[in-house]
């Protein structure tokens, strides 16, 4: 293969600098852990398989692949796979993302298993 995800085997690409470890968490931001949970949920519920996830992830646009953070790429692949499987509606997903970005998250019409509505709040973004 000779895709953007195969940079390790290409000439003229030097070693990446090591990631700075965090004593408290394997994630740099809390939302990355949520993405990891969505990934595990997708695999565990048979919504998608590992090979399909990897294929979707590696099919990303090369420029985006190089400029978007790791877990953001994961989130894009998971969103695609959840939409394809009918787990979430693409329009609803877009509307919710826009409301979070605008700082006005709206609560979903669905309820938790205990019957109460739940609305996640967007965390403050660090720069």
Describe the protein.
The longest helix has 15 residues, at 30-44. Helices cover 45% and strands 0% of the residues. The N and C termini lie far apart (35 Å). The mean pLDDT is 78. The protein contains five helices and no strands. The protein has 127 residues and is mainly α.
Structure summary:
The chain is mostly helical and 127 residues long.
Order of helices and strands: HHHHH
Distance between the termini: 35 Å
Let me know the number of strands.
0
Mean pLDDT: 78
Q: Give the CA-based shape.
A: globular
Largest sheet: none
Evaluate the radius of gyration.
Answer: 17 Å
- Total of helices: 5
Low-confidence stretches: none
Helix-strand makeup class: mainly alpha
* Fraction of residues in helix: 40-55%
Strand content: under 5%
